[in-house]
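Supplementary Methods, section 5.1.

A reviewer requested that the exact input to the structure prediction be made available. We therefore reproduce it here, unchanged from the version used in the analyses.
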Amino acid sequence: MDRVALLALTFLSFYATLGYYPLFNLDEGAFSEATREMLERRDFITTYLNGALRFDKPILIYWFQALSASIFGLNEVAMRLPSALVATAWAYLIYRFSVRHFDQARAYLATLFMVGSIQISIIAKAAIADALLNLFIAASMFCFYRYYESRQKIFLYATYAAIALGTLTKGPVAILIPLAVSGLFLAKEWRLWLRSILDPIGIAIFLAIAAPWYIAEYLEQGHKFVEGFFLKHNLSRFSSQAMEGHRGPIFYYLIVLLVGLTPFTSIAIKTITKIKEWFAAPLTRYLGIWFLFVFIFFSLSKTKLPHYIIYGYTPLFILMALYFDQIRSKTALLLPYWLFHAIFALLPFIKPIVLEYTKPGSYEYFIIQALDFGVGYVAYFLFALLVGVALLRLGKRRAITVAAFITLISLNFFIAKVYAEAAEGPIKEAALLAKERGWKIKMEGINVPSFYFYAETIADDKSAIILIKRSALPNYPGATILYQRGAIALIKEQK
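The structure derived from this sequence is encoded token-by-token as follows.
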């Protein structure tokens, strides 16, 4: 039954809503449009976004998305499916590693925490590179521990291969985490660590997998690639200035963790209070160093984005499985579930209050105004809260499993749907209108790359038809409004 429950949760979390709502901007829109332009250009080395060079990420996720689009067409399912598939593989690795080192009960819990937490559910089906990167980070870290245990070189070589694939997915971070964590873990066995990281066959495997694309891209783009990828999108993220305004306080990732692990937050808190115990055995020490390094390193980084902490979630999920039984109170266990559903149950009622404190006519104002909760939304969340009370009658393991099911339904079929229809629905609708009419469009004051994905075109700077924020309409007196809904408008300027 455990495996059936995990399969059902995986489907609900990763697959059930792949095409249920439009692509989210900026990230999903940017990755998807870059993939569309890759297919259009037939250039599978360099990525472009709206006709301009895009060096944000390496090539692997684009290849997977391009393959998916070639099979299923240019749509949300095709763009998101690669992430869902690799997230499933990531969950499977957690299960197999936990079974090997603990037992099936712990493996079930560790995998449950992965597939059932809201932050994983969001990134695991998003048309971005993070699910793929986390698969390779997990694979490299698990393989290295197997090597440490057995000293069998096959596991060391598998570690190098996974790191190389991660480097093709998101760059140097796929090297940094295994290198730093293994070094800290083997601080007293530093000769073994040096032999591991300087293994000539391993290095050859890494270069054979990762180097060809980097060399090809450098030969094609030269210094622009070095400056755009390595300097801007990697080193700059950890410099003295936050990149693109993505900054946050030192405790930023503590907040992300507490929210992102819903409905398992109480288990995470209990686990973190046991940090001293993590260092009692080699495996839990390894997992603890892995989590703590990611948490501390990215907390100290100037650029902060919510998904960075996920690089350290895999070991935390396994540690949480070990400490699950130490939560005695079912009320404490289910408290995050109740808080989550109570907050979202109140949203329809506090929407007018939020609007009062939002600048009238602003971009955010129009999105909030467009949120359409409906009677069904309110009824569902009241039902979810009642279910939460009933869960107190179940055993802890079954209660947290049911809580995960209900939370995933809440997130994917109600919360995300309401927001997507308000914020992204008008963009898709306007883009499809432009595609139907054959309009060439430019954007001013707004950056929503999913528009060009749906319109299947790129910007035409000479066009008189402009996509703008609805709040900017007063800046275009005399323009003809071709489309207006939510926070955006399509207008035609008078020449």
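The first helix runs from residue 2 to 15. These observations are discussed further in the main text.
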